Recover the amino acids of this structure.
């Protein structure tokens, strides 16, 4: 029997991309989102970068779906009139010690089929006159977009194709049988052939609600941003990133010129005291206890005590945050930046204390659970949707128009 009824929990960019793709293929789709708007959490708080994918292990889902997603996201933006800029990015080595890591990154970019080239420090300053660089990797296909606009467009397209779109509706219970899955929610229930969990920060809890033991635990990390003052935006033309340190769990602060011309600087990475906690003042006892009592987190924290302390200090000190940014753009001072909000990353941590470094999709009968989809998930959203639909083998009617 063809699986033609699908319920999706989560109205971020991945859930909406899956909904649009399935509804276009003729499925009867219901999307359940607990917030009153689409893209309310990770999608609506990210930096808006269309990534090219030089960081990811060749052959991984992140590498393959990001590379394809770069192309499909630009095309989707063009076809739907969504503002975007192909700005390019510089990944810079600020001293000679970072050059070997930069060149290894260039090799990885080549292995992933990405158009990227090493440039000298003087060539780097032709792109970014104020940058500190002894060498850099220029990635031309990186861009900027408004992912909230992408998400609302996907929601509109899905609804136009017959999807039932439920905002302000939280899933309360999930009942799975051999023949169907029923999601009980705030305003009733929906029975379907297949459940797809795209709940982001709550994805492991939705999996548990469906009777599954998730392979990883979601631990929330807040990334805080500053913004360059209007009179200092000329310090950055596009995107400036550091060379990532493979011994650290996160990328490090960087500069991003946004669609509106503002320049965001950050993020750092500190443990959030709530899964949807965008400031130190937002505390959820359950969320905090879930994180700090989880053996995987304790092992990760034990290996990164110094780094964790530095991140907390940078969160609390504008001077330290500015000093980190000045490694990349030495002219920048604390007077040149103002606070500009934060996002929360749903970081999946495995029981051994390692980070899930690839997209993690766990399946069970009549269930697909997207348990790890941090950056570059927004870039890859259309391709993640394609992957999920292919993996689910829904047996739907032939596609109407596939990208």
């Amino acid at each position: 029997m063809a699986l033609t009824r699908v319920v999706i929990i989560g109205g971020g960019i991945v859930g909406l991309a899956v909904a649009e793709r399935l509804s276009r293929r003729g499925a009867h789709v219901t999307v359940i989102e607990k917030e009153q708007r689409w893209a309310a959490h990770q999608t609506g708080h990210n930096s808006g970068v269309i990534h090219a994918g030089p960081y990811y292990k060749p052959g991984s889902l992140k590498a393959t779906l990001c590379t394809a997603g770069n192309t499909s996201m630009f095309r989707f933006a063009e076809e739907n009139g969504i503002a975007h800029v192909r700005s390019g990015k510089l990944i810079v080595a600020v001293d000679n010690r970072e050059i070997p890591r930069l060149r290894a990154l260039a090799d990885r970019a080549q292995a992933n089929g990405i158009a990227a080239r090493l440039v000298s420090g003087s060539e780097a300053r032709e792109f970014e006159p104020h940058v500190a660089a002894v060498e850099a990797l220029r990635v031309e296909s990186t861009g900027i977009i408004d992912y909230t606009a992408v998400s609302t467009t996907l929601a509109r397209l899905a609804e136009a194709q017959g999807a039932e779109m439920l905002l302000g509706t939280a899933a309360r219970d999930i009942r799975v049988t051999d023949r169907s899955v029923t999601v009980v929610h705030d305003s009733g229930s929906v029975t379907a052939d297949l459940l797809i969990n795209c709940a982001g920060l709550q994805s492991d809890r939705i999996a548990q609600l469906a009777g599954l033991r998730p392979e990883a635990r979601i631990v929330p990390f807040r990334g805080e941003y500053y913004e360059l003052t209007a009179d200092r935006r000329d310090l950055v033309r596009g995107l400036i990133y550091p060379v990532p340190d493979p011994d650290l769990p996160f990328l490090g602060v960087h500069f991003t010129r946004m669609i509106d011309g503002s320049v965001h600087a950050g993020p750092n990475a500190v443990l959030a005291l709530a899964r949807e906690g965008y400031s130190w003042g937002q505390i959820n006892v359950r969320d905090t206890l879930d994180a700090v009592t989880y053996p995987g987190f304790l092992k990760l924290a034990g290996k990164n005590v110094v780094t964790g302390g530095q991140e907390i200090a940078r969160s609390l000190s504008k001077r330290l945050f500015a000093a980190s940014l000045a490694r990349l753009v030495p002219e920048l001072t604390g007077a040149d930046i103002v606070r500009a909000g934060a996002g929360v990353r749903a970081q999946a941590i495995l029981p051994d204390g390692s980070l899930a470094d690839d997209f993690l999709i766990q399946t069970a009968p009549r269930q697909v659970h997207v348990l790890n989809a941090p950056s570059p998930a927004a870039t890859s959203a259309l391709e993640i949707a394609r992957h999920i639909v292919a993996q689910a083998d829904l047996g739907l009617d032939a596609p109407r128009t596939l990208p």
Summary: The mean pLDDT is 94. Residues 61-80 form the longest helix (20 residues). The CA atoms of residues 6 and 372 lie 21 Å apart.
